[in-house]
Amino acid sequence: MADASHEQWLAQIDAELDGELSLVERAALAKHLVTCGHCAGARASHLEVRVALARSAGNPHAFVVPRPAIRAGTLALWVVIALGAGVVGGWVAHHQWGGPGSGATLEESRGTIVVH
Ligand SMILES: [Zn+2]
To answer: Both 53 and 104 in a single domain?
Structure first.
């Protein structure tokens, strides 16, 4: 069986954090986490995300994160990821086409555009 099931365990982790697992399922998950650093690490970061979401929802001591907070938080997360990707993309483009040697810095080319 081995790793066929990492994805399934990750789904179980989400369900556990939502308070949707039975005791038997939680026991199975706990057993897997003891032997699997990958899933244990994933659970820790899932928890951190939920703590951040609960905080942003104004309830840092919540037992589970209410669904609407997850949706809003997920949206915010994607915005952050999109911004990050944009920054990285811009940085890469800058280094490919505007990097050292081409002469113009970003500031200079902006000045040029304004002058024209
Ligand atoms: Zn695992």
So the answer is: no
Q: How far is the CA of 30 from the centre of ligand 1 (A)?
A: 11
Whether the Cβ atoms of residue 33 and residue 39 lie closer than 8 Å to each other: yes
Mean pLDDT of 31-46: 95
Q: Average pLDDT of the chain?
A: 79
Total domain count, the chain: 2
Distance (angstroms) between ligand 1 centre and the Cα of 43 equals 10
**Which domain, by its residues, includes 58?**
1-65
Distance 87 CA to ligand 1 centre (A): 33
CA of 80 from ligand 1 middle (Å) equals: 28
Question: Could you tell me which of 28, 2, 3 has the C-alpha nearest to residue 12?
Answer: 28
